[in-house]
Target: Glycosyl transferase family 1 domain-containing protein
Amino acid sequence: MAKHTQAWMGMPKKRWPLMLVAFLSLSTAMVLFIRPNSSVPCTPTTAADNNHFVDQDNQIRSSLQLGNAPSPLDFMKSKLVLMVSHELSLSGGPLLLMELAFLLRGVGADVVWMTNQKPPEPDQVIYSLESKMLDRGVQVLPAKGEKAVDTAIKADLVILNTAVAGKWLDAVLKEKVSLVLPKVLWWIHEMRGHYFKVEYVKHLPFVAGAMIDSHTTADYWKNRTRERLGIKMPETYVVHLGNSKELMDVAEDSVAKRVLREHVRESLGVRNDDLLFAIINSMIYCWLVVTYAQSLIGVSRGKGQDLFLRSFYESLQLIQEKKLQVPTLHAVVVGSDMNAQTKFETELRKFVAEKRIQDRVHFVNKTLAVAPYLASIDVLVQNSQARGECFGRITIEAMAFRLPVLGTAAGGTMEIVVNGTTGFLHPVGKEGVTPLANNIVKMATHVEKRLTMGKKGYERVKERFLEHHMAQRIALVLKDVLQKAARQN
Model:
């Protein structure tokens, strides 16, 4: 059997003080390292198509204020913002909306949260998340009833989160929906075909705007809604996500990274000079009162772990055939579940056993501790299939740790990774197995190139993908939507 590791078990007591130092910088009152949790289809955007979108990058570079300067969201002070989420869970969409809620509360906005779908029985995750929002001054109200309607009408801005939240409009607002649509900003993260239903998005053309995580996702929505539903998207704002300050603190702390690297590698049974290539699935940090909670996303075919392992095996064969002198290579698959192995995960383990590479492949349980693995590996593999990731926050998190990225040439990954500069891109599907294997060999044989790519990736994150970049991008969107709503009223 391939190795299965729970990396945080059996830590020597003498290491706890240093580990606490590392994680205290990570675990502030609310830490949300969020990325969309589905490997959803995205279509590359052409230069002509980009004219359709509101792209704020040039404005951000010219106007961004750093340090102790005022927040770009300060104009939201005293504004009443209603946020409607289709669910409240430890998945990317709801947590990303919570992150925005806390940013707005930080500048003095009045924020009201409603969850459209809740289970009939008490839910510990929902209770914990609602408690954290209440602690931060976010009002939590029922999504139905007269108070919900009154709040929507009085709000300066209504943010619908995900396509499914569109069901709330008719179900709750009924004949008053037309009073609210002009001040609705629809934040969309999904790309699966079953979300393109009239009952979800029939009001989409009439809202103030749609906010989407990448150009590829926005382009897909524009084409899909027109071709499949015959409706037109509203003005669409593309807002790339950003790394939190807490993650950057760890990524830039050489002592913390060294301690994390040593411990994880020790737990995996690999040496310091071995080369680790990792595919990491759905890591979401969420500080819930005093404990961490876990996103329950495991390995899946859409994330491409099977094709990655085939590429890794092929790279080992190439190294042996060419008699290349390289460090020992290891593959790490983070997101496993040894207690509930799926058919797909069983296939992965069977492949590893058949190829007799159990000593080179390590399956790691689902975990929230993304920072230790980013600190311990040498290369991130982002192998999402079909149309790729809508954005892929793990990619910018890895780049913050100065890691080169080997990603599929699809979806939002192409908006993050600069091919040949911060990593290499390869095709999706079986056609990408050999190119990825070759890129793994390149990373193993060209040390300086690997390190330079990691450095360039870090520089790209500092330039474009930090929390304050995301806040500035969102601020430009909110200003525009508020102005539209004011004109309508």
User: Anything to note?
Assistant: Residues 12 and 232 are 59 Å apart (CA to CA).
